[in-house]
Amino acid sequence: MLGEANRLRILCELGLECRPVTDVITATGMGQSNVSFHLRVLREAGFVRAERRGPFIYYCLADPELLHILHDLKQWLDTRQALVAGMDHQLSRPTRPPSAGARTKGG
User: Fold this and answer.
1) Is there a contact between 62 and 47 (Cβ–Cβ < 8 Å)?
2) How many CA atoms lie within 13 A of 101 on its CB side?
3) Mean pLDDT of 57-69
4) I need a surface site. Which of 10, 39, 55, 88 has the fewest CB within 10 A?
5) 23 pLDDT more than 70
6) Residue in 29, 24, 52, 53 with CA at minimum distance from that of residue 39
7) ∠33-70-86 over CA atoms, to 5°?
C-alpha cells in the first residue's frame, strides 16, 4: 500500500490537519483525478478519513501516530538515499593505476 510514492507524498502532505482535495493537489503537484484515486485507496485501507464540510470533502490521517511513523520512514529513506548516493559517487570515481616508480605487492 505504501510502496506507491504518490501515496506516501499525499500522507506526508496531510499531516494532522484535515485538508480539502484542492490543497493536496497544490501541495503534491499531482492531477485531481490522480489525487482523488489515491485518497480513495488510502481511505479504503484505513490510512485517511474523510469529513464532509459543506460541499467539500476534507481528508486527514486516520491515526495521529501515523504521522510519527511517516516521519521516521522519511528520515530512514533520506539517510538511505544519502548512503546510496555516496556509494555511487565512490564507485564512479576513476581508480588511478600505481605510478611507475611505486612498488606493487609481490613485485
Assistant:
1) yes
2) 0
3) 92
4) 55
5) yes
6) 24
7) 100
Distance of CA 73 to the CA centre of its chain: 8
Asked whether residue 73 carries a pLDDT value surpassing 60, the answer given is: yes
Distance CA 20, CA 91 (A): 45
Closest Cα to residue 1, out of 38, 52, 53, 49?
38
CA-CA distance, 99 to 47, in Å (whole number)? Answer: 60
CA atoms within a 13 Å half-sphere pointing along the CA-CB vector of 60: 11
Contact 12, 68 (CB under 8 A): no
pTM value is 0.68
Residue 73: CB partners within 8 Å, gap ≥ 6? 2, 8
The three cell numbers locating residue 69: 511513523
The Cα 97–Cα 18 span in angstroms is 60
pLDDT at 100 over 60: no
Q: Which three cell numbers stand for residue 50?
A: 474523510
